[in-house]
Amino acid sequence: MTIAEQVLQAARQAVGGSADVDVNVAHTHEALTRFANSYIHQNVASDTATVTLRIHRGGRTAVNTTTVTDDAALAALVERTAAAVRVSPKDPGWAGLSGPAALPHSPSPDLATGEAAPDDRAEEVKAYIEAVGGLTAAGFYRNRMVVTEYVNSEGQSAHGTVVEAAIDGIAKTPTSDGAARQASRLMTDLDGAALGARAAAKALASQDPIEIDPGEYEVVLEPTAASDVLWILGGFGFNGKACNEGTSFVKLGEQQFDPTVTLTDDPLSGPAAGTLFDAEGTPRPALTLVRNGVTRAVTHDRRSAREAGVPSTGHAGAESAVHGAEPVNLRLEPIPGPPPTEVEGPAADSAVLALVAAVRRGLLVTDHWYTRCLDPRRLVMTGLTRNGVWLIENGEITRPVKNLRFTQSYPEALAPGRVLGIGTHAPAFASKYGAASAMAPALHLAGWNFTGGASG
Predict the structure, then answer these.
(1) Residue 201: partners with Cβ closer than 8 Å, 6 or more residues away
(2) Which residues contact 56 (CB under 8 A, 6 or more apart)?
(3) Buried (b) or exposed (e) across 245-255, using 16+ Cβ within 10 A?
(4) Using CA atoms, how far apart are residues 156 and 237, in angstroms rounded to an integer?
(5) CA-to-CA distance for 38 and 199, rounded, in angstroms?
(6) 323-369: per-residue pLDDT in tens?
(7) Angle, nearest 10°, between helix axes 192-205 and 118-131?
(8) Among 116, 267, 311, 330, which is least packed by CB within 10 angstroms?
(9) What are the structural domains, with CATH classification, of the chain?
């Protein structure tokens, strides 16, 4: 009997067969190699089992979690959850449990990626450091494997394994830095040497930046910056709870985006990693959020779906009852074209450089940083550029620019007629906001509103 089955059986005995009970168990192995000043300075690893028990009885719901999995700890988890549900407030939003349902077919996970040893990570870190060519390198290489089991009293049972490897690093000169990163469900996809060379090229090209006046500029957002746009759109906009409460910009069925924009949430898309069911055991199929600029769907857990009168999309998370269900495997469709190649200079690759060639006067942006929401209904964000900004003049990258603060509505930047180009390649990135991923091509946008320098 598995841990999940053991807890389910004990909970049903404690509260009776009429209660709704579900159990989610996540075994997480995560290992990390950090480097700074061009040396590896830390190798760490953790193995954690997180058991979450939820009981709904008599119109009340209680949830408890433990990371201790011996018999006594699991019995205590059941006891305190059963006690809590008796005194919890009424839960009018309870939507019931998911019934038995088949999951989409999943390819077998690459266990070598999930279980990569320190020596495996060190080889790619070494390649990254050597490729920066004498500049100072810092960053990390992470590999992760999550084995999840879900069971409930309605008979649903789901099991899945997700693996991921990611490199994120910078190269520094005394006055500048450059960054490059990549994630994949296959560690063999990661190329430390190519990433290190790209970060070094950006750092060298960022020296002695000039200051420019604030204002609206045509921009090319590299995939690293475009991925931030996707995560923000997903978390604030395509969030079913936010839509129900009227705090999202989303208007289903309307042409809110340029016709070139097609956005999906797909756990099986390309190198990005994702589970095929959510924290409520609901299958998570591919979901088209935007098709040819028309908003088609938002993500739901069972609560927000019940309120909206639609089925759950399989996006329940540990805190979705509070913060809403969010997309976790976003992909902005690139345009058809040949695979990109590495290029000289600060552009990430040939796909980015092709977009730069179409800009008369604008900015090439590597990264967004410290992005914060000012107005969720218009999704106006403020944030900073980071890790390299350059002036583009007549299709050429001409000089580095000091970091800038922006204040910009993300949906308005992607509105009809505002997307002038999309890259041919959508690399995968691990989210800085949690256990999620995004696949984002570069974006050529007609305007981005910069409101000042990084200092104000």
Answers:
(1) 178, 344, 345, 346
(2) 19, 20, 21, 85, 91, 94, 97
(3) eebbbbeeeee
(4) 30
(5) 13
(6) 999 999 999 999 999 999 999 999 999 999 999 999 999 999 999 99
(7) 30
(8) 311
(9) 3-193 (3.30.2290.10), 215-453 (no CATH)
